[in-house]
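Interim report to the steering committee. The following record documents the input for Alkylphosphonate utilization protein (117 residues).
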Amino acid sequence: MEATLPNCPKCESEYTYEDGNLYVCPMCNHEWSSNADESNTEEEIIKDVNGQELNDGDAVTVIKDLKVKGTSSVIKQGTKVKSIRLVEPEDGHDIDCKIAGIGQVGLKSSLVKKSSK
């Protein structure tokens, strides 16, 4: 008998899989504990493109050119961003940071890789 896995609570995808004691959604990269109930206030783990866990204050590097919405500015691939702040995802943007020459922006963790400080 095959056990049915729960749908992703974030995007409702049915393609979840188990990784140790976590469920993982390959569609939105959401991870949650297989034995956690909904009242658990455990913080979501935010990871970079390589699967490295990100924390407040980390330095990251942008992995591809990004157009800044509403301007003609571009954040170039290889731009190093220091002292990131992790936030509740809004439109997929889960990192707040300041970039020289551009200002305060939100980035997606899937478009950065962790770098040394």
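The chain has a mean pLDDT of 85. The committee is asked to note this result when reviewing the revised timeline.
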